[in-house]
Amino acid sequence: MDIRTKAVSPTGRLHLRDSNDELMFNAEGKEVAVTLFGPGSKQYAKAQARQQNALMDKLKRKGKMEQTDEQKRAENAEFFADITESFENLEYDELTGRALATAVYSDVTIGFIADQVTAYVSDWSNFTKVSTTI
Question: Buried b / exposed e across 108-124, counting CB within 10 Å, b at 16+?
């Protein structure tokens, strides 16, 4: 068997849920979703390397790793922004692109979104390619 037939898709789409665990839809009934780069993508590997390099830099400079909640949230927001391809039907002020992603992931009042992204990208099966054979 050619093991590459088991390769995962570089992206996956997550239909977001609200804090009550209900699927979210906009006013027109369209899904509120995020498309994420998964653990099998170059974008994810690059974001992970950037995160690990930042950690190493801190250790070299300070010799310790104490962080405030705000610092940790900001670092996580940057990582999540790096692995976010796009949002669908989600608005935050007038922001778009990376600025939108960073704002969403930084906002503690909607932290349930970052929690969902964490769980989603931690599961390789969310990036399984759909079979084209029947």
Answer: eebeebbebbeebbeee
Q: How many helices (H) and strands (E) does the chain have?
A: 4, 3
76 is a domain residue: yes
Query: What are the pLDDT digits (tens) for 78-114?
Result: 999 999 999 999 999 999 999 999 999 999 999 999 9
The tokens describing 92, both together, are: 């935050």
Q: What residues make up the domain containing 113?
A: 10-127
Q: Is residue 4 part of a domain?
A: no
Q: For 73, what's the count of Cα atoms within 13 Å in the CB-facing half-sphere?
A: 14
Q: With 60 as the cut, is the pLDDT of residue 32 above it?
A: yes
Query: Considering the chain, what is the average pLDDT of its residues?
Result: 91
High-pLDDT (> 70) share of the chain, %: 93
pTM of the model: 0.86
| DSSP notation for 27-74 | TTSPBPEEEEE-TTSHHHHHHHHHHHHHHHHHHHHHSS----HHHHHH
Average pLDDT over residues 47-68: 77
Locate 82 and state its tokens: 């790096």
